[in-house]
Amino acid sequence: MARFLQIWSTWVLLFLVFTYFPAAQGVEKVKVEVYTESLCPDCADYIINYLNPFFNNGLIDIVELRIIPYGNARIHLDGSLTCQHGEDECYLNIIQTCAIRLWPKVTDWFPFIYCLEKLPRAIAAQDWKSCVEPSHLDLAPLVECSASPLGEKLELEFAAETNRLQPPHKYVPWVLVNGEPLFENYEDVARYVCNDYHGDKPAVCSRLLFLESSRSMQSSVDACYKTESSLNFA
């Protein structure tokens, strides 16, 4: 009898796990990678209006989200950086990179980056610390990372990753879903996520999957384009 109860308990446990925890069945999250740069108004708009809703509509539960803040910067032969929107952008890119690396959990670092992108561009580099406390991060590690060689080292790693993109990015935000660039359809990222996820989908997907791409007929997008002056040379 004891043996029967043990087997029965095991089967019940397995049933509950496979019923209520889809990840246990091998359902992989959808990988979303967003290549951005600070002080780019179109990147800010994307983070605020397209990525932030993931945390309210349930999509973040089925997404592995990464943000790579480097964008259209340039690496000089001596290893120094020049950024499309000047020194303030380089500084804020490193601040974001440090936050992502110091707090790898997306629910930790995303509120901080979201707050940064909502700051007025004219004062963002001076007022970034105002985003630390409401995001529940610690100021000291961020200051230490951004002011030390570690911050630049981490940013150069993101630079190398950005420069390895195939095809190369043409602008930012540059968005990949499961390794495939969305090109001009980047605003439809939520629909692509719903389409690529093979488990139980959040309710928002039932509406999104019926929508046609809103960008497919357009020849240009709202983005910060890579120009000759912002190409990377190593």
TrEMBL record:
The keyword Glycoprotein applies. This is Gamma-interferon-inducible lysosomal thiol reductase. It is found in: Secreted. Keywords: Glycoprotein, Secreted, Signal. PANTHER family: GAMMA-INTERFERON INDUCIBLE LYSOSOMAL THIOL REDUCTASE GILT, GAMMA-INTERFERON-INDUCIBLE LYSOSOMAL THIOL REDUCTASE. InterPro entries: Interferon-induced_GILT. The lineage of its organism: Eukaryota, Viridiplantae, Streptophyta, Embryophyta, Bryophyta. Residues 1-26 form the signal peptide. The keyword Metal-binding does not apply. Belongs to the GILT family. It comes from the Eukaryota.
